[in-house]
Design a protein that fits this description.
about 200 residues; mainly alpha; Four Helix Bundle (Hemerythrin (Met), subunit A); 6 helices; about 10% strand; Hemerythrin HHE cation binding domain-containing protein; Hemerythrin-like; Dimeric_xanthone_biosynth; Split_barrel_FMN-bd
């Protein structure tokens, strides 16, 4: 099926969940928004729960017509996602709920995947065609390691068995956002002109 989530458009496999898996996912949805349980009760039927698994390939969408546009679009999605996570953590009260934990871990996983892809695919290609970028790429890789350490710290706090101390998690989210914003801004300043150049 084709999915459009407001930022990206992509193809995904859709699977209707059942049994214990359906119950676990529905329980997380109800925790995030209790209205789902009320709606299911009021409807007199069991609501379907569908899992979407993206089909491998780059996301597309309006305005994503070059490597530079793709990079800045992905970066903007991380900026927005982390701003949402920060707002959710700030409003969480003393403990983190399951959906908030999932949102944090999803953002962390996405950032880790993005930086790994840059380190293993984008940067080697840029280095081969633009040797003058060697110091830039070296700095970006070093910044990826700093961000990875912050992600690991945040993931550990979110995975904690003590229901998560939201004040500590908020401090970790703020540290990550500060470092990541500086990193993304500098990366775009250095790489967007190169990625925008005609081949």
């Amino acid at each position: 099926m084709h999915v459009e989530d407001g930022l990206f458009a992509y193809d995904a496999d859709a699977v209707v969940l059942d049994g214990a898996e359906r119950e676990a996912v529905f329980a997380r949805a109800v925790e995030a928004d209790p209205g789902w349980a009320d709606y299911e009760r009021g409807s007199g039927r069991r609501l379907p729960v569908v899992a979407l698994t993206p089909v491998p390939g780059p996301p597309g969408g309006p305005g994503i017509d070059s490597p530079a546009a793709f990079l800045t679009t992905v970066h903007e999605s991380f900026r927005r996602e982390l701003a949402l996570v920060r707002a959710e953590v700030a409003a969480a009260g003393p403990r983190l709920g399951a959906q908030l934990r999932l949102n944090c871990l999803s953002a962390c996983h996405g950032l880790h995947f993005h930086h790994t892809a840059e380190d293993t695919h984008l940067f080697p290609g840029l280095a081969a065609s633009n040797p003058e970028l060697a110091p830039v790429l070296e700095r970006l890789r070093a910044e990826h390691e700093v961000v990875a350490a912050l992600l690991a710290r945040l993931e550990a706090a979110v995975r904690s068995d003590d229901d998560g101390d939201s004040a500590a998690v908020l401090a970790d989210v703020d540290a990550l956002i500060e470092q990541l914003e500086a990193h993304l801004d500098w990366e775009e300043q250095q790489l967007v002109p190169v990625l925008s150049a005609p081949l």
